[in-house]
Amino acid sequence: MAHCLDSPSQTQIPFGAYCFKLNFTPVSVIANPIAHPNDTSFNPMLYTAGPNVTGQFTKDKNGRGVECPAGFQHAAVVGRREAGNGIGVPPGGFFVIFFD
Fold this sequence. Notes:
single chain; mainly beta; four-stranded antiparallel beta sheet; three-stranded antiparallel beta sheet
């Protein structure tokens, strides 16, 4: 697993956007939040992409591109805050399932 990159600067996005290197090519990817007492029904939704996530595949709240670093392009998971407020992680975290 690696942090996604901000497309223009190629710097790591510190949390909420992750790319995966797998030993297989997934057919689909599902990410689910883990329940937490402070959850609200609108706390981040998880966006998944795969397989072969190359180039800019989504944008952050400022319109800057998000992409995966080389070697970690089999799948991606991005936590999207409600109403397009940006990238984040659910309070309880999340888990990812890959299907091949």
